[in-house]
Amino acid sequence: NAGVTQTPKFRVLKTGQSMTLLCAQDMNHEYMYWYRQDPGMGLRLIHYSVGEGTTAKGEVPDGYNVSRLKKQNFLLGLESAAPSQTSVYFCASSEDSSGANVLTFGAGSRLTVL
Amino acid sequence: GQNIDQPTEMTATEGAIVQINCTYQTSGFNGLFWYQQHAGEAPTFLSYNVLDGLEEKGRFSSFLSRSKGYSYLLLKELQMKDSASYLCAVRDSNYQLIWGAGTKLIIKP
User: Fold this and answer.
1) Which of A40, A44, A90 lies at the smallest CB-CB distance from B42?
2) pLDDT band for position B95 (50/70/90)?
3) Which residues, in sequence order, are CB contacts of A57 under 8 Å at separation 6+?
4) Which of A11, A70, A98, B42 could be joined to A105 by an S-S link, Cβ 3.0–4.6 Å?
5) Cα(A66)–Cα(A86) distance, rounded to whole angstroms?
6) Percent of chain B scored above 90 by pLDDT?
7) What span, in angstroms and rounded, lies between the C-alpha atoms of B6 and B8?
8) Quick check: B19 pLDDT over 90?
9) Closest chain B C-alpha to A36 CA, distance in angstroms
10) For range B2-11, the mean pLDDT
């Protein structure tokens, strides 16, 4: 099992450019999440999905869009990148959100916006 | 607002014991998690507490006091590979995870 796979691992963008981060999981998990991790701060939830075809806003959704057309994939899009979006992005998945269900994380995608 | 507090950094010696504290103020409580994150890698699950008391798992133990809004992660027989950041996260009343900034643990020989 590959678990959660994120692509790309690294990317440098210029301000105003667009890009998409791809997350794929092979564990048949219903829930998928996109987080960003910045120095000195906890993981912050950008968007999440509770099943195929659904998306919802997290704590810091502005400037990002997501889609979950297939259960195994969760895409994060930046339409017009800004330097404030320089961060490490983690995708995660879980069976559901209750009990001891834990998150399985991807390896992360480091994005730099110049 | 919701808040998770952890020390920013701790140093300990190989073979010793270290306790990493986490205090929280959240809208409701539906469980507390500890994750380990090595530099440049993804967080990985360590422990889960939902009832008061101590959960032991090998060299790692996690304690919870819901009335005090307090948890700690206890690492025994420290090894160099335990050098990592330790993240505390609380699931609130909306079943959303609120994350602390993490505690960077440095192990010295």
Assistant:
1) A90
2) confident
3) A47
4) B42
5) 18
6) 94
7) 6
8) yes
9) 11
10) 95
Answer yes or no: are the C-beta atoms of A49 and A32 closer than 8 Å. Answer: yes
Contacts of A76 by beta carbon, 8 Å cutoff, 6+ apart: A20, A21, A23, A34, A46, A47, A64, A65, A66, A89, A91
Quote the CA–CA distance of B1 and A86 in Å, as a whole number.
Answer: 25
Please check whether residue A73 is in contact with residue A23, taking contact to mean a CB–CB distance below 8 angstroms: yes
Per-residue pLDDT tens digits for B31-81: 999 999 999 999 999 999 999 999 999 999 999 999 999 999 999 999 999
Q: Please give the structure tokens belonging to residue A62.
A: 């502005």
Examine residue A8 and say whether the peptide bond preceding it is cis (omega within 30 degrees of 0).
yes
Return the structure tokens found at B107: 């192990």
Contact criterion met (CB < 8 Å) for B44 and A106: no
| CB-closest option in B48, B87, B101 to A102 | B48
The DSSP secondary-structure symbol of B78 reads -
Q: Name the DSSP class of B82.
A: G
Question: Which residue in A92, A94, A77 sits closest to A24, CA to CA?
Answer: A92
